[in-house]
Design a protein that fits this description.
With 139 residues, the chain is an alpha+beta fold. Helix content is 28%, strand content 24%. The longest helix is centred in the first third of the chain and has 12 residues. It is globular. It starts with a helix and ends in a 9-residue tail after the last helix. The structure holds tetrahydrodeoxyuridine (THU).
Length: 139
């Protein structure tokens, strides 16, 4: 289970989300390999495709702090249905989170379900997929 601190931080940043177009606020909190928590929220834009997801925002904060390993992730959304990271965010998380990393899917009251990164994105395309024979180096 995530710490109370992790859940409270997700709630705080979710409430700060800028989502005037969808009215769907999302908060994401990542625990880095260094133990620190990194948080982000979705930020929408009048030019809709320019909006950014909470997970991507949290990853940027983590990387800017010099950390590149996610050991625990939490995503919080409002509403009736279970929040699960969108396909693009699964790929973004997978860049820094191993298959065994727990991902807590939360509503504002707490955890509704916990799954692993590997369950969230099976057969992930990653750095290892680029290695080996068949790689076109353009030469
Ligand atoms: N959203 C996220 O922030 N993360 C997700 O994984 C799913 C979707 C945001 C994007 C948009 O601002 C709003 O939720 C509705 O799609």
């Amino acid at each position: 289970m995530p710490s109370e601190e992790m859940i409270a931080l997700a709630r705080t940043v979710m409430e700060r989300a800028y989502a005037p177009y969808s009215s769907f606020r999302v908060g994401a909190v990542l625990r880095g390999g260094n133990g620190k928590l990194y948080a982000g929220c979705n930020v929408e834009n009048a030019a809709y495709p320019q909006g950014t997801c909470a997970e991507v925002a949290a990853i940027a904060v983590m990387v800017a702090d010099g950390e590149r390993r996610i050991v625990e992730a939490l995503v919080m959304g409002e509403g009736e249905s279970l929040i699960a990271p969108c396909g693009g965010c699964r790929q973004h998380l997978s860049e820094f989170a191993a298959a065994a990393v727990p991902v807590h899917l939360c509503d504002p009251t707490g955890v509704r379900r916990t799954i692993t990164m590997g369950e969230l994105l099976p057969l992930a395309f990653g750095a290892a997929s680029l290695a080996g024979p068949g790689h076109d180096d353009g030469g």
